[in-house]
Amino acid sequence: MQVYSEGTHLIVPWFERPIIYDVRARPHLVESTSGSRELQMVKIGLRVLTRPVPGQLPTIYLTLGENYNERILPSIIHETLKAVVARYNTSQLILREREFTAAIEAKQVAVQDAERTKFIVEKAEQDKKSAIIRAQGEAKSAQLIGQAIANNPAFITLRKVEAAREIANTISNSASKVFLDSDDRCCTFPS
Q1: Residue 190: its pLDDT value, please?
Q2: For residue 155, what are the contacts with CB-CB under 8 A and spacing of at least 6?
Q3: Which intervals hold domain Band (predicted)?
Q4: What value does the mean pLDDT take over residues 36-42?
Q5: In angstroms, how far is the first alpha carbon of the chain from the final one?
Q6: Residue 97 and residue 43: Cα distance in Å, rounded?
Q7: Lower CB density within 10 Å: C or N end of the chain?
Q8: Each residue of 140-157: pLDDT tens digit?
Q9: Three-state SS across 139-163?
């Protein structure tokens, strides 16, 4: 099995079928009733953001199937929530609600900032690679032009003709009128 990113991919009909997973972070709302340290029942609502790791999708599919969220998440979330709530008194849970919310929001902001920074670094690396490739291409082009000039001096005349055609094409497509003196040509060619 192979993981493909979004886009167009070729498959062989009747032999291959795509299994599409959403790899964006998705919220799951969970309501749970669990006991505090004082053994009082507390009803808590929890919002969990989950997303699969794209590289692990074949393993997830083979072991858990397509609906892995419904099979795994409820039990893990309820067990973890009960274990965490059991550590606190009811009064602590009420007082620390704002702290928990602020801590969770701060963590999400930090994760988003880290992802944004990672994207900026990757973009800078790609820009650096493209600049290197562009410079190598220009150097190779200059080398080939130098060889062409050394091998055949008429190459410069050919370039002048190409430039004159380009200028004439630009002037002819222009909306404004251009008058040129017949004695003053853009390029002088040897007779």
Answers
A1: 54
A2: 145, 148, 149
A3: 2-136
A4: 78
A5: 69
A6: 13
A7: C
A8: 988 988 888 888 878 888
A9: HHHHHHHHHHHHHCCHHHHHHHHHH
Q: CB count, 10 Å around CB of 85?
A: 19
**Local structure of residue 55 (DSSP, 8 states):** G
User: What CA–CA distance (Å, rounded) separates 162 from 116?
Assistant: 46
Q: Give the separation between CA 137 and CA 143, rounded to whole angstroms.
A: 10
Domain boundaries, the chain: 1-89
d(CA 178, CA 23): 59
Q: Out of 3-7, 117-121, 128-132, which region has the weakest mean confidence (pLDDT)?
A: 3-7
pLDDT for residue 105: 75
Do 58 and 1 meet the contact criterion of CB atoms below 8 Å apart? yes
CA distance 154 to 77: 78
Q: Supply the pTM of this predicted model.
A: 0.42
